[in-house]
Design goal:
Radius of gyration: 16 Å
Oligomer: single chain
Helix content: 25-40%
Low-confidence stretches: none
Distance between the termini: 42 Å
Strand order of the largest sheet: 2-6-5-4
């Protein structure tokens, strides 16, 4: 049995009951509720709009009966999956976990999708970027694996 983990979700509000929202823009792993194991990354998400936000913490208990796709690192399969999701192609996974295409890497992906750079150029540019982490929940069953722990305000200390 897998161990419980603490996950973080940076937001403008307290999110006691996470939900999957269909947004205007497609995300790395398509529409879902996104968290991370990296507290500093979640803080950046929380404060990105006006320098203050809410850090939500959850306890995640993996369910072996769910369909999970995991990318331990940036790979060709990871790149192809993100390109497909950001192009509007859905998938049937309950949970997807892997590196996050941060702003810089996202720009490289978009340039690759638009044909402005080759696949090999993408990898040459991306290999020096520090990987980040995301785990996304795509079904109601997946959301049942996380339970709200606490929430608190965070601020940009600059």
């Amino acid at each position: 049995m897998s161990e419980a983990k603490i996950l973080y979700h940076g937001s403008k509000e307290i999110v006691k009951s996470p939900e999957i929202r269909i947004a205007r823009f497609n995300k790395d792993f398509y529409f879902g509720f996104y968290c991370t194991i990296l507290m500093e990354q979640a803080k950046r998400w929380a404060i990105r709009f006006n320098g203050k936000g809410i850090m939500n913490e959850y306890i995640y208990m993996p369910n072996p009966n769910l369909k999970v796709l995991s990318f331990p690192e940036m790979t060709e399969e990871w790149l192809d999956f993100i390109v497909a999701c950001r192009s509007g192609k859905s998938h049937d996974f309950d949970i997807v976990e892997g590196p996050m295409a941060n702003d810089t890497i996202f720009n490289y992906i978009q340039n690759f999708v638009d044909g402005k750079i080759s696949r090999s150029a993408f990898w040459e540019l991306a290999r020096f970027k520090k990987p980040t982490h995301q785990i996304s929940f795509h079904t109601a069953r997946a959301l049942q694996t996380i339970s709200f722990k606490t929430a608190y305000e965070v601020y940009d200390e600059k």
